[in-house]
Amino acid sequence: MDIEAFVQELESLIPQAKHPMTISLLQDAINRNKSSISKTIKPQHATPAVQIKPTIQVKTYGWDQTDSTVKIYVSDIPGLEGAIDSQIVTEFTANSVNVKVNDLNNRNYNFSIGELSGKIKADSAKAILKRGSVIISMPKASPGNWEEVTMVERKTKEAKKEKEKLDDISKKDSDDPSAGIMKMMQKMYDEGDEDMKRTITKAWYESKSGKTPSVPGAPEM
User: Fold this and answer.
1) How far apart are CA 179 and CA 205, in angstroms?
2) What digits encode the pLDDT tens for the residues 125-160?
3) CATH architecture of 55-139
């Protein structure tokens, strides 16, 4: 029996009823059946909360290269031998790489390099699963040798070389104190005013000959 249809029919009879008792009986029947309908409505179940899987950042990797390609090997991921290709999500730009392994042992894993030391062909780059490792293959934008994979490593190495160069110059100056004094005097002469230049010229001339020059001139450094 369609209770809702029955209630609708009862409600349609009320305007036709004239005796108060008839109207009261119809209304009581309507109320009873409406109560029955409400009891049969199934309660709404709350939607279960979506479980957010933790993301682990992977830092360890190995790499090698040919003149045309750079390859990165990521294997420091537990259970990676059980992963499938559909769990691998990649994003490449001309100078960056981002690889995710999703939903592995109830976790997500992420490996990324924000700035590579050289340019790559992003459209041709890829990542594959092989023998429990993620192998990231990136064709170089131009052939050549990379000394480092990341720009951070490259800048660190360049800064180290520059420091070594400055330390070497400093060591040479300390081995020859007069050379350091000469450089200091030359700097003072170049940056000084006319009085400073005359004073330095005089001091330089007297140190060489013991005489005062009649015409001031730049010291011979």
Assistant:
1) 17
2) 999 999 889 999 999 999 999 999 999 998 998 888
3) Sandwich (2.60)
